[in-house]
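**User:** Here is a favour to ask of a fellow structure person. Please take any protein you like and set down a full record of it. No explanation is needed for now; the record alone will do.

**Assistant:**
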Amino acid sequence: MWRALGWGDGVVLLTVAVVVAVGVRLAGGAPAAVAGPTITLAPGALPWYTAYSLGRMALAYGLSMAFTLVYGYAAAYSRRAEQVLLPLLDVFQSVPILSFLPVVLLGLSAVLPVALAAELASVVLIFTSQVWNLTFAWYQALTTIPTDLREASRAFRFSPWLRLRVLELPFAAISLIWNSMMSWAGGWFFLMAAEIFTVGQRDFRLPGLGAYLKEAAAAGDMQALGRGIVVLVGVVVGLDQLVWRPLLAWADRFRLEMVEATPPPRSWFYDAWSASALAGWVGQRLVAPVVERLDAWAGARWAVEREQGGQPAGWGWGVRVAAAVAGAALLCEATRAVRLLTQVPAATWAAVGVGVLATLGRVAAALAIALAWTVPVGVAIGTLPRVAAWVQPVAQIAAAVPATALFPALLVFLAGAPGGLSVAAVALMLLGTQWYLLFNVIAGASAIPAELRQTAALLRLGPLDRWRVLFLPALFPYIITGAITASGGAWNASIVAEYVEFGGRTLVTTGIGALIAQATAAGDYALLLAATLAMIATVVAANRLVWRRLYAVAEEYYRLE
């Protein structure tokens, strides 16, 4: 049921303020100067750099998936946890990580070896670009599982593990796969920022494909830049052929339909793997016994817990003690954050308010433009396999190309146009966030049962009626999920879109992103905290007052049952 802003939102905002205050204190103990490794532009370095970047991306994705399953499950099945976890998720996906990265890097380098701190910070940055759309997609899937399937799982007394394995993960599989593609595309988008970052005299660069691309661009070496882009595109295409297409072909079995889709998704690699005797032996002799033992262990544990009446004794007291300790720490550090905010003058708070309104207008414009083209194109890709075979790799490549690399050329084209940087900022927001909508719409269109499409054809529904009674209702939960993550990404992109250093000069337009970028560059942590909290509060309010209400509508009226 829809709720307005509540106490959970206040706890979340207080927590963010405390985290920033602690990070600022740690940053003061960071080394005064850090020398990073030399990034060579030799062609022979590309394979190693690519392997380093793939390793960071894979580690961040593994952490993202683990976080998604645990966090989304808790938010979907515990109303008490939902009161804190959902607003916290709103905050997380709206936090401008590029503004926090200096604090994170400096804070980690104060307590860890510099090389390890840089690696952890890069994984954290990639993680934050991958995890939120996955978590929203998982939560949306759990809250829209058909009632009859849930009742069947209860009738058969499924343990939580068995319900997860045979109902929840299969139901969410298509959405999670498409959002995983988007997560990897988002990771490539932030790769250059994750692998090369400087704060004053501190150079935190890491060897990798993103560092290679950024170094080539800074040196003006177009051949090296071209080689790096070719390798990046090759990696994206290879992942499409060897990972994502096979997964989509495998997940086709989980569609909620009584007739087979015509034609089903195909993958040459999946067909080869399915026909392999070695793969069959591995599945029967290694995987199947492990799954059977897990089923037996989880079933036995579930039976014991049911006999004991639920959670183990003392569990509730442990949570209360942990909450009391965490609350005391929050209150202690909250005073430091408040003192930091009191350093911001009233005129600056007024500028923050104006900046929020300006950026809100750009975010709304970018979201409207994205919706206008991603919905029809996503439906075409999701319902027409022949279109998907050609357009899907193109969409993945386009989503993976860092929009920040295209922004200088876009800025040259739009600088003299009416609106100047304001229009260019909307364009950059669009380039970086429209893919969240597209991939979610594709996932929703792919999950529409074939019998519903055939029924619409038998009833000879016209194009408008087909969109009104079939496509839009079926896509509604997916559009909301995509819109939440896309709008959060647009707020993040405002930091690099509204404050640009280009051609030896600095271009600035009114906006909260510009204020955050200026505060980061000047080391004004009080303004950084004030502007960041203002952005977070705005995004949380929009999510709670608009998107959460639409989520409730989707959960109640647009289930496939």
Remarks:
- The chain has two domains: 48-275+346-557, 276-309.
